[in-house]
Amino acid sequence: MLDIFNIVFPIFALIAIGYGLIYSGLIPKEAGAALSKFVFTVPLPLTMFRSLATANLSEQAPWSLWGAFFLCVFAMFGLGMLVTRFLFGREGSVLAVAGISSGFSNLVLLGIPVISAVFGEDSLVPLVMLLTIHLPIMTLLSSIMVEIYAREPGQALHFGAILLKVGKGLMRNAIILGILAGGIWGFLGLPIPELASGVIDRIVPVTVPLALMAMGMSMREYGLQGDILNGLALAIIKTVAFPALFYLVTATILPLPNAWTAVILLGAASPTGVNAYLLANHFGVGHRLSANTISLSVLVSLVTLPFWISVAHTIMGH
Questions:
Q1: Contact, 76 vs 240, CB < 8 A?
Q2: 172: DSSP letter
Q3: Angle formed at CA 246 by CA 243 and CA 251, multiple of 5 degrees
Q4: What is the spatial distance between Cα 219 and Cα 203, in angstroms, rounded to a whole number?
Q5: Which is nearest to 212 in space by CA: 26, 33, 19?
Q6: Rounded to the nearest 10 degrees, what angle do helices 2-24 and 29-41 cross at?
Q7: Which phi and psi angles does 111 have, rounded to 5°?
Q8: How large is the average pLDDT for residues 86-98?
Q9: 98 near 90, Cβ under 8 Å?
Q10: pLDDT tier at 70 (50, 70, 90 boundaries)?
Q11: Residue 33, exposed/middle/buried by CB under 10 A (0-12, 13-18, 19+)?
Q12: Distance from C-alpha of 174 to C-alpha of 12, rounded to nearest angstrom
């Protein structure tokens, strides 16, 4: 437990530092948005690129990994909608916000730091393989939900237009570009040039602390704004039910290599990603619910994450 505490404490301390810097006014809140943009534009894409470019991906088909994870995503999406509908009496587009809040893992800002701290940066390969389709699928799912609730009664869904819009957005996403470039580089078996590697090796180490502080800064914006019980219920679904179901699925239906199961289990146990709040902005509804779920899932993970780290260590035989 002391080892787990030593892993978890720096993670949440960096989040708290980011939150405190904005809360105290030492740094203007605009700096938080700028730091997040920098993290998503430079160090995170380079981390993705290096992980895939230097990985041996032969005989590592990700189909079972994708299947197990997204089976859980869709199950949590439905569970979050059902809980919000029948326990809290909400209807309409807020249900889509509840679904995304229950199923969208913060794999980048928190998943990468946690997994790197627990198993080392070399363990990120299965997470990066998941990220190759996680953002596209979740973005597409969110966009479809927006269109379903925004359309007029009887109006047809234009899936072609939705796919085109999502595709254009993804092609401007630096993380997606870093993943694609790293995958191609690794597939071709090319070494990273020494000069380029020297630059990348100096940038990548700042990824984890900056990502965690950026997350803390963003939490100041979300805060707790009402709908506490509904948000808490969704936070528990995200940080408890999601990883529990993933563990069950990989132990019974879709077995994975132990290293992959352990790594992705920690991704599944990560709090809700900020995309839930972005979806609420699209709808113009559910802002409080999504913001609460993001903040509360981080707080709940203070308790749940050490447990899932211990489970991940057990899976790895440590």
A1: no
A2: T
A3: 130
A4: 25
A5: 19
A6: 130
A7: -60, -45
A8: 88
A9: yes
A10: very high
A11: middle
A12: 26
Please write the tens of the pLDDT for every residue from 235-250.
Answer: 999 999 999 999 999 9
Tokens of 65: 């990994």
Give the model's pLDDT for residue 152. 62
C-alpha to C-alpha distances, 89 to 40, 95, 176, 235, nearest whole angstrom: 37, 10, 38, 18
Question: In terms of C-beta density within 10 A (0-12 exposed, 13-18 middle, 19 or more buried), how is residue 115 classed?
Answer: buried
Tokens of 69: 């994870």
Q: Which residues contact 239 (CB under 8 A, 6 or more apart)?
A: 269, 270, 271, 297, 300, 301, 304, 305
**Long-range own/partner contacts, residues 158-166 (CB < 8 A, 24 or more apart):** 166/136, 166/139, 166/140
Question: 85 — phi, psi (to 5°)?
Answer: -75, -50
For the chain, the distance separating the N- and C-terminal CA atoms, rounded to the nearest angstrom, is 13
> Residues of 72-97 as b/e, b for ≥16 C-beta within 10 angstroms?
bbebbbebbbebbeeebebeebbbbb
Phi and psi at residue 105, to the nearest 5° = -85, 140
Tell me the three state secondary structure of residue 105. Answer: strand
Distance in angstroms (rounded) separating the CA atoms of residues 133 and 131: 5
> Within the chain, where are the H helices?
2-24, 29-41, 43-53, 63-86, 94-103, 112-119, 125-150, 159-171, 174-188, 194-203, 207-222, 228-236, 242-252, 258-268, 275-283, 287-315
Q: Bridge partners of 272?
A: 105
Provide the token pair at 217. Answer: 């800064």
